[in-house]
From TrEMBL, chains A, B:
Keywords: DNA-binding, Pyridoxal phosphate, Transcription, Transcription regulation. GO terms for molecular function: DNA binding; DNA-binding transcription factor activity. InterPro entries: HTH_trans_reg/aminotransferase, Tscrpt_reg_HTH_GntR, WH-like_DNA-bd_sf, WH_DNA-bd_sf. It comes from the Bacteria. CDD domains: WHTH_GntR (cd07377). Residues 71-91 are annotated as: Disordered. Residues 13-81 form the HTH gntR-type domain. This is DNA-binding transcriptional regulator YhcF, GntR family. Pfam families: GntR. The keyword Coiled coil does not apply.
DNA sequence: CTCCTTGTGTCAACCGATTGATACAAGGTC
DNA sequence: GACCTTGTATCAATCGGTTGACACAAGGAG
C-alpha cells in the first residue's frame, strides 16, 4: 500500500516536481524502505489525474538522483543503498514551514497547535 | 537595505512564486517590518535578471494577500496591519497541509505537535 | 507646474510543462 | 512459447510563465 499522494492545484510548482518532492520525503524518511515498489505509472497517473508522461518524468528524475531504480515490466523500486541528505529532518522541515506561516498570520503557538489538532484526521 | 533575495535556477517553481514566498517569509519573520519599503520593480528586476512584469506579478500577489500596498510613484511597502479576516481560515489551511505531510511521513498527532513546538521560534 | 520615479497595462514572441494518444521494449508469469 | 504488465519514446496541441519593449498613470520633489 502506497501512502496517499496528493497535488495542490493552487501551487504553481509543476506537478512532476510536487510529486518528486513527496517521494523524496517518503524515501528519505524511510516510509518507503529500500526495495519498496512505487505504484505503476498508469495507476498513479490515473489516481492523480495526470498524464503518464508526467509521472514518468517524476520517476525519471528520482532515478537520476539515485533514489529509485526503474525496469520495464518490473516496476520502479526504492534503491537498496540509502543516500540520506535529509532523512530525519523531513518532519522538522515541514513543522518549521508551518510554524513560519502560522506566525505570519499572527497566531501564537497554542493557536497553531489547536489548529493542527483540529485538522488532524480522525483515527 | 533589502535582504539578499535569490532565485534557484534549478527549482522548477516559477520565479514570481519563489520571490513571493521569500517576501512572505521576510515579512512574516519581521525582517521587513510594517511600513518598510520593497525595492522598486525595475531595480529588483535588474538585480535578479528578471523582466519587470515578473516582479510586478509577485508584488501584485503580495498585495492581493494584504501583505503589501503598492502606489504609483510611491513604491511598495509592507502593510501596517496584519491581515486579520483571513487569519482563521488561512491558519487552518496551513495546519491541514502540515498534518497531511506529517501523516505522509508516518508521524502520529503527538509527534507532529512535538515537532511543531520544537520548531516554534523562541520569544 | 515640471521632472523624475514608480507601478500598471499591453503586446508579440518564445519556451517549458502538460495532455492524450500511440507505439515500442523489456521483465514476469503462465 | 504466448501473454500481460510496466517503463520508455514520440507526436501534435494547448496552456501558463517569461521576456523585452513600449506606453500610460499617479505620487514625490524641486
Amino acid at each position: 500500500m502506497t501512502p496517499a499522494l496528493r497535488l495542490d492545484a493552487d501551487d504553481p510548482t509543476p506537478p512532476y516536481e510536487q510529486l518528486r518532492r513527496q517521494f523524496v520525503d517518503l524515501i528519505g524518511s524511510g516510509v518507503l524502505p529500500p526495495g519498496e515498489r512505487l505504484p505503476p505509472l498508469r495507476q498513479l497517473a490515473g489516481d492523480l489525474g495526470l498524464a503518464v508522461g508526467t509521472v514518468a518524468r517524476t520517476y525519471r528524475e528520482l532515478e537520476a538522483a539515485g533514489l529509485v531504480r526503474s525496469r520495464r515490466g518490473g516496476g520502479t523500486r526504492v534503491t537498496r543503498d540509502v543516500p540520506p541528505p535529509e532523512a530525519g529532518p523531513a518532519l522538522d522541515r515541514h513543522a518549521t514551514a508551518y510554524a513560519r506561516q502560522a506566525r505570519l498570520l499572527g497566531a501564537d503557538l497554542e493557536a497553531a497547535v489547536t489548529a493542527l489538532r483540529r485538522s488532524w484526521p480522525a483515527g
